[in-house]
Write a structure and sequence with these properties.
This protein is an alpha+beta fold. It folds into three domains: 165 residues, Roll (Ubiquitin-like (UB roll)), CATH 3.10.20.70; 403 residues, Glutamine synthetase/guanido kinase, catalytic domain (Creatine Kinase, Chain A, domain 2, 2-Layer Sandwich); 125 residues, Four Helix Bundle (Hemerythrin (Met), subunit A), CATH 1.20.120.1560. 48% of the residues lie in helices and 14% in strands. The protein is built from 24 helices and 20 strands. The strands form four sheets. Strands 12, 13, 14, 15, 16, 17, 18, 19 and 20 form a nine-stranded mixed sheet that branches. Strands 3, 4, 5, 8, 9, 10 and 11 form a seven-stranded mixed sheet that branches. Strands 1-2 form a two-stranded antiparallel sheet. The longest helix has 54 residues. The site of adenosine-5'-diphosphate has 15 residues, from strand 12, strand 14 and strand 17.
Length: 746
């Protein structure tokens, strides 16, 4: 094992960089815009391939969110196949998102056998075919995907259905393979959602309807649709593959279960935004190239805070497509890293004591004419619209902060939430000085301090009520300066940034719950506005301000501007009655409380059975993940750590013995041997306790299992780790079988 570790380290050092060939035309590289979408069957490709009336029918049906008729589907399928085969594709697949956090696919060849009777003889011949039926719907053998009891009670099968809003594309694999990908929903025989996409589409639809109604009340009769926009900043680690291969914990659980964290401040502070190491740059660039081809608009890349930690971020898109693209980004990075002999880690906390990874979900809403509803920088008139939308969001987050917490709960994100370097388990909203002042002034019925002045003007409130007219409403500038990195949900200029989302998880469910809560609050804001305006055609400024005021006051407790990592905030939040949900099982329960049920079921986002099945899947997955971790830790200790300690003890004992032969008392060796003996025994005992606990927990039923995993199992694992980490420091380096943090990270 010693040799394995050394040669892995050597391999890492000697590894030649992998050259990537950016395509050229003449003597220049292709422009990013020329690469973008090369392998996407987009509107342009469709318009080129279809007769005009068919193309128009297709567009109309997609925009109207209708099911495609059979004839149109046949024509689109034919066109897609010809396009894909000309680009080398041999297979197609419905690409869907079961509730596993990743995607699933099953490839089918275009190959079709036909038979013909020629002079009494059957002749078989081969053609390539792809029908509208195959495009629209497929039936994967889906019995082993998580379903939380939905399908077993009805029908064993699930169906995948093309999400026509998300275009088909070609994914290229090793050895020239190319497959036509069809982004799909995954539903049960009875139409229940078994996946992450279906409910996202539903929630976006519900949000759109609620927003359009509010805009109508404000006199906007043009807007027919409001889309949810999403841009996911993705953080990850890249480490050498040879070293990774010697860490069974990383391989099985995605994180290190043992390992001495680097001493504080050892982390190179200058890594952040520093130069990207060339091997990593080559890897990310190749991934970006592949992503660009399939239409993922990756825009930025940079180093993150921790050593070997990086981030890529795309240009934002409609939420359901942004989710597809985030999942594709993770998959492509995973595959490309392999080619560079690197391993990408998406886990939220692969290394104890080292900055964790998140997925900042930047979220907003946009009208069909391209107006961002969270863009405050325009005229005072639209600032009313902006403020109404803003207070609706605050109301939503305030009323459903516990529910929102459930969507970001997982055994892996648990290491991040509440830990001292990431959003705490309390969900609060940050607005920045300027917006806070605007809302405070409206609440207190006083003029808004002018932020164009270098420092905040204080305004005396007095007893008189001031009417805030359009003339007194200052333009709200896009304020990017005051960023509170500690807020889990922060307004950042023209969007909210949901930072508590885990790096490894699909961003879909967090967005679903956010959409659901916001659509409900938009409806409430609209109702209040309709009531305030009475019989008038349009609400007056006073009407609008009164509604903004009403919701500002009722949601005030969710606003928090100071340091979210401080102990004071925990106390303050408790005083305010904000939920501080530390454990996952508790967080999952939030899905089932009456307010959540009402929110999700009455708006048609999840049915009763979809909701309970989701709860069960989450609980089960949580317990399973932790039991896998515990078992992995147990085997690391028994097969790696203890044997290393024993080997070193033997060497020491032999040395002590041979010194005795020459009448020397081996004092220093004995000292070390005693220390090793003590901690080996303590580790053994902790490990035995862990083993017994695993057996006990495995015998419990679902919910009790999850609770026991969260409370007892994690504590027992921590104890084992503590002892193992002491031994890592005591055992001679040459005996240690696992690459150490310093080797993995520096
Ligand atoms: P930052 O300073 O946080 O990097 P950026 O403007 O670069 O800010 O945005 C970060 C992410 O937010 C990007 O993925 C970007 O596309 C996304 N984003 C920007 N505007 C919006 C919006 N209106 N809706 C959703 N996401 C957005
Ligand atoms: Mg950001």
């Amino acid at each position: 094992s010693q040799n394995a570790r050394l040669s892995a380290l050597q391999e890492n050092v000697d590894r030649p960089g992998r050259n990537i060939d950016w395509p050229t035309i003449g003597d220049r590289n292709l422009y990013p815009s020329e690469v973008f979408g090369l392998d996407v069957f987009d509107r342009k490709a469709l318009a080129n391939a279809l007769p005009k009336p068919v193309y128009q029918r297709f567009t109309k049906q997609v925009q109207g969110r209708q099911q495609l008729d059979r004839q149109t589907a046949d024509a689109v399928a034919h066109a897609a196949r010809v396009w894909a085969m000309n680009k080398g594709a041999t297979h197609f697949t419905h690409w869907f998102q079961p509730q596993t956090g990743t995607t699933a696919e099953k490839h089918d060849s275009f190959l079709t056998l036909k038979s013909q009777i020629v002079s009494g003889q059957e002749e078989i011949y081969a053609i390539d075919a792809f029908s509208g039926g195959q495009l629209l719907q497929s039936e994967p053998d889906a019995s082993s995907f998580p379903n939380g009891g939905i399908r077993s009670t009805f029908e064993a099968r699930g169906y995948t259905i093309w999400d026509t809003v998300s275009p088909m594309f070609i994914r290229r694999g090793p050895h020239g393979t190319a497959v036509l990908y069809i982004p799909s929903c995954f539903i049960s025989y009875n139409g229940e959602a078994l996946d992450e996409k279906t409910i996202l589409l539903r929630s976006s639809e519900v949000l759109s309807n609620a927003a359009v109604k509010l805009l109508q009340t404000l006199g906007d009769n043009e807007t027919k649709r409001v889309t949810t926009t999403l841009g996911c900043e993705q953080e990850f680690f890249l480490i050498d593959r040879a070293l990774y291969n010697l860490r069974p914990d990383l391989k099985i659980t995605g994180r290190t279960l043992i390992g001495v964290p680097p001493p504080k401040h050892q982390q190179l502070e200058d890594h952040y935004f520093g130069q990207i190491p060339s091997r990593v740059l080559a890897c990310i660039a190749e991934a970006e190239y592949e992503l660009a081809r399939i239409g993922v608009p990756v825009k930025t890349r940079h180093n993150e805070v921790a050593p070997n930690q990086f981030e890529v971020a795309p240009i934002f898109e409609e939420a359901s497509i942004a989710v597809d693209h985030n999942l594709a980004t993770m998959e492509v990075l995973h595959q490309v890293a392999h080619r560079h002999k690197l391993k990408v880690l998406f886990h939220e906390k692969p290394f104890k004591g080292v900055n964790g990874s998140g997925k900042h979900a930047n979220w907003s809403m946009q009208t069909d004419s391209g107006d961002n509803l969270l863009d405050p920088s325009s005229t005072p008139e639209t600032n009313y619209r902006f403020l109404l939308v803003l207070v609706a969001i605050l109301d939503a987050v305030y009323k459903h902060s516990g529910l929102l917490r459930s969507s970001i709960a997982s055994s892996s994100n648990e290491h991040r939430l509440g830990a001292n370097e990431a959003p705490p388990a309390i969900v609060s909203a940050f607005l920045g000085d300027h917006l806070s002042e605007v809302l405070n002034a409206i609440e207190e019925k006083r003029p808004i301090a002018d932020f164009s002045q270098p420092h905040l003007q204080t305004v005396s409130v007095g007893g008189t009520q001031l009417d805030l007219k359009i003339s007194t409403m200052p333009p709200i500038s896009r304020d990017l300066t005051d960023r509170n990195r500690t807020s889990p949900f922060a307004f950042t200029g023209n969007k909210f940034e949901y930072r508590a989302v885990g790096s490894k998880q699909s961003p879909s469910f967090p967005v679903v719950l956010l959409n659901s809560a916001v659509s409900k609050s938009l409806t409430l804001v609209n109702e209040a506005l309709v009531k305030a305006k009475g019989t008038k055609a349009l609400p007056s400024e006073e009407d609008i301000l009164s509604v903004i005021r009403q919701f500002t006051i009722s949601s005030k407790k969710i606003r928090f501007e100071a340091n979210g990592y401080s102990e004071d905030w925990v106390k303050e939040a408790e005083k305010r009655g904000l939920p501080n949900i530390k454990s996952c099982p508790e967080a999952f329960k939030q899905l089932l409380i009456p307010a959540s049920r009402e929110l999700l079921i009455s708006q048609g986002i999840l049915s009763e059975s979809e909701l309970t099945s989701r709860y069960h899947i989450l609980i089960e997955k949580y317990a399973k993940d932790l039991l896998i971790e515990a078992n992995t830790l147990h085997s690391l200790v028994t097969n790696g750590v203890l044997p290393a300690s024993f080997a070193y003890r033997k060497e020491l004992a032999d040395s002590i013995n041979s010194q005795k032969n020459v009448s020397v008392d081996a004092i220093p060796e004995k000292k070390v041997l005693n220390v090793l003996t003590r901690f080996s025994i303590e580790l053994q005992e902790a490990d035995e306790k862990l083993e017994a606990l695993i057996t006990k927990i495995e015998g419990l039923h679902e919910e009790a299992q999850a609770v026991a995993c969260g409370k007892e199992l994690t504590a027992a694992m921590e104890e084992v780790r503590e002892k193992s980490d002491i031994l890592e420091k005591k055992v001679a380096d040459k005996y240690w079988p696992f690459p150490k943090y310093t080797e993995l990270l520096f």
